[in-house]
Amino acid sequence: ETGTGDGDGDDQCAARVSRPAGDRSDPSDRSDRAARLVRAADFRRWRSVVLNITSRCALDCLFCNEKDFHFKAPDLTFEEIVARLEGYAREGYQSVCMMSGDVLLHRDFERVVEWIGKKQGMVPAFATTGERLDDLSFLERLVARGLRHIEFSLASHRPEDADLLAGRRGIGARQRRALANIGAVNGRADRPLIVSLNVILNSINAPYLRDTVAFALDALGRVDWVSLKAVQIAGNARRHPFLALPYHRLAPAAAVAAALLEERGENYFLDNFPLCALPRGLWERSQYAFLVRSGQRLRGENYDGRFDRGSDFAARGHDHDPVCSTCDAAPICPGFPGEYGRLFGEREKTALADVPAAADVA
Asked: How far apart are the C-alpha atoms of 107 and 334, rounded to whole Å?
């Protein structure tokens, strides 16, 4: 699940830095962790723009939330992309994150990365499910051309489940190789890539979510931040509702994975969870609440009409339910997916009665 739109992308590819909850790691690792925190904090202050260059994708992920929000149209040409990038440079954007369709399928992707990499004051980034990154030489070429940041989305470390969730055989094995390649490149780089990891929580991986997170962390070697994202009941997921779980079953799985991230001293957030569905100790890890509290816009305003129908939370299946009307935390909470009550019953929402006060997550 990656963001859409051609506009401010601070909620997607700009680094999200949270407060470490205590350093329980081996002391020999602390200098590396400090370096990652400093690098992520510096990147966090950059102004980031999301750019759609293609609507094409070789996968048919069961959880994809893009299916209902994309027009099918020809890829942007290299000249069209450069024209937009010149405009972003004039507006002071420092990071350009390419996402939505599988940008690695664009014929000029390497040229675009190189153009951004050579532009004074701008760095290239992209979101991916690992397509083509199982080819180490391809990844090395991207880094040589100036690639700076990869946002990797992973639904399962088990190849058979990854294939099922991606709607394509063989993608699970390729993702494992891609993760290992990123780790290998970063392990020998003088200036390591900024790496963010999105783990998509669903009914299939919930029983072993901690293992998926651990596998990805071990393969990557270093990660700047992790997002544990509950599957959105939108797009393809509407047609595959078995992927969704009620929050009283999903949140405990997220909490177990979060405990691992705490233990390893990683930066992380939880996404697509209403605050009342999270254990009290994880409220401050709500990505939505963090973005609002830090004054960031959640979505851009300059959407690319070629590919994107618009991507506000209500359109993507999230909205504030009437049950939220008396909650003080509503301004910093994403609310419930619009399909949640239909799938699990209205009582499931009202049962989440321990609604936090806004002060608790301030």
From this structure: 37
